C-alpha cells in the first residue's frame, strides 16, 4: 500500500466495494495479523519500549491472549488509557474489545498512556512504579495477568531476560 492509508482512502481506491465488505475482510484477516504479531513479539529484535497507541495496546492484548488457558474464564475489564476507554470481555477463550465504558467491570486499569500498560503486562513491571492504577477483584486481576502471554512469547521473553541477566523470569 506504499505507506499508511486511512480507511476512506482505501475505500475510495476500490470502487464498487462497500465499507461493510471492507470491514468484513478486515475481520477475516485478523487471525493472520495476530500470528504476525506473535511472530514479531518473539523476535530477539523486538523492542517493547517503542511508542504504542491505546488501540495498538488493546490489539496486542487480543493477540497475546492464551486462548486455551482462557477457555473457562470470564471477566469484564475496563481500560482507561488517557481519554480513551475500552472494555475487554473475556469469555470462552475469546476477548472481544469494544470502545466503551463498562458499567460494572471486574477490574479497571487507568493510565495516562499505553506504554506503561505494556510494561506491566509484558515486562512484569510493578504497576505502581509506572503510574498504572488498578481497581477491582484481586482474583480476576490474577487471571487477567496470567492469560496475557502465549507460551511461545512467554518462552521468548524469558530467554531475553536470562540473556540480560535478569533474576526474575516471570510465569
Structure description:
- This protein has 171 residues and is α+β, with helices and mostly antiparallel strands.
- It folds into 2 domains: 7-41, no CATH class; 54-160, Nonspecific Lipid-transfer Protein, Chain A (2-Layer Sandwich).
- The protein is 42% helix and 15% strand.
- It is built from 6 helices and 5 strands, in the order αααββββαβαα.
- The chain has helices spanning 7-12, 19-41, 54-64, 114-123, 138-146, 151-163; strands spanning 75-81, 84-90, 97-98, 107-111, 133-136.
- It has a 5-stranded mixed sheet, covered by helices on one side.
- A hairpin with a 2-residue loop joins strand 1 (75-81) and strand 2 (84-90).
- Helix 2 crosses helix 3 (54-64).
- It is globular.
The major pleated sheet works out as: 5 strands, mixed
Total individual domains: 2
Helix content: 40-55%
What's the number of helices?
Answer: 6
Corresponding CATH superfamily of the largest domain: SCP2 sterol-binding domain
Structural class by sheet pairing and helices: alpha+beta
Q: Tell me the CATH topology of the largest domain.
A: Nonspecific Lipid-transfer Protein, Chain A
Summarize the helix and strand pattern as letters.
Answer: HHHEEEEHEHH
What fraction of the residues are assigned to beta strands by DSSP?
Answer: 5-15%
Please state the average pLDDT score: 76
Low-confidence stretches: 149-171
Tell me the number of strands.
5
Shape category: globular
Report the radius of gyration as a whole number of Å: 17 Å
CATH architectural group of the largest domain: 2-Layer Sandwich
Q: What distance lies between the first and last C-alpha atoms, to the nearest angstrom?
A: 39 Å
Specify the CATH class of the largest domain.
Alpha Beta
Strand arrangement across the biggest beta sheet: 3-2-1-4-5
Amino acid at each position: 500500500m506504499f505507506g499508511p492509508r486511512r480507511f476512506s482512502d482505501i475505500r475510495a481506491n476500490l470502487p464498487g466495494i462497500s465499507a461493510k465488505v471492507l470491514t468484513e475482510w478486515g475481520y477475516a484477516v485478523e487471525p493472520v495479523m495476530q500470528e504476525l504479531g506473535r511472530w514479531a513479539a518473539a523476535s530477539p529484535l523486538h523492542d517493547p519500549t517503542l511508542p504504542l497507541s491505546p488501540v495498538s495496546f488493546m490489539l496486542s492484548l487480543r493477540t497475546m491472549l492464551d486462548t486455551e488457558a482462557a477457555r473457562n474464564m470470564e471477566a469484564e475489564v475496563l481500560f482507561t488509557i488517557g481519554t480513551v476507554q475500552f472494555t475487554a470481555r473475556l469469555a470462552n477463550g475469546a476477548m472481544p474489545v469494544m470502545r466503551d465504558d463498562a458499567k460494572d467491570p471486574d477490574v479497571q486499569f487507568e493510565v495516562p498512556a499505553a506504554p506503561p500498560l505494556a510494561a506491566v503486562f509484558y515486562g512484569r513491571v510493578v504497576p505502581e512504579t509506572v503510574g498504572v492504577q488498578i481497581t477491582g477483584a484481586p482474583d480476576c486481576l490474577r487471571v487477567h495477568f496470567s492469560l496475557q502471554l502465549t507460551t511461545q512469547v512467554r518462552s521468548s521473553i524469558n530467554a531475553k531476560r536470562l540473556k540480560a541477566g535478569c533474576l526474575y523470569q516471570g510465569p
